[in-house]
# Entry
Amino acid sequence: MFEITNNPINIENVVKKVVRREAGAITTFIGTVREFTLGKKTLYLIYEAYDKMAIKQFEAIDKEVKEKWGDVKIAITHRVGKLEISDIAVVIAVSTPHRKDSYAANEYIISRIKEIVPIWKKEHWEDGQMWVGDQLQKKSYTNGKPEVIND
Amino acid sequence: MIKILFFALLRDKIGKSSIEIDREEISVKEIKTYISEEYNIPSCMSMLTSINEDYATDEDIVKKGDTVALIPPVGGG
# Structure
């Protein structure tokens, strides 16, 4: 259900993983490479992951989602390596009996990926390059690690 | 040996993706202090860390055979 890949992501293959008879809704989130960020033109991105830990964190997110919404099935595939503008970086598929839970869980998952999953991106511009850390992590974690939400 | 992994900007700064240290036991904070001083990277003191792919705190103890990673600010999605 969870994958880090060097290859282009096949959206339908991710969606198929959550198809089931109990589902009345499947939401799919597709994260793509944006050309302009704060007015600055991106040429391409390099994504890198700590694969083994990333998969473990996807599993942790799966657990959180099931605690919050119950009957949810999720699949996540994240691409690493060099990505061009409009390439797909991540696909998240969520199936639930009813649509509201599916939308909510899907948005929750991408937010949590940006907080706790060890994946990094390096922006390459015409005049330079930089590893971009998510602003979320600039706050200090009082217990030394990202908060795991259990409620 | 204890293996320490570096990713992203940290790997670029240090110039390698991992090192090994010969210790029976060491705290996460001691590892951070060592990296900070050895490679002159004070920012690593505030980075998240993991032991064997689970998030760790500065007080956690790393034992021989464990794998530690310093996690620079993540940017997935």
In short: Confidence is low (pLDDT under 50) at residues 134-140 of chain A. The interface with chain B takes residues 31, 47-50, 52-54, 56, 78, 89-90, 110, 113-122, 131-134, 137-138, 140-141, 143-146 of chain A (CB under 8 Å).
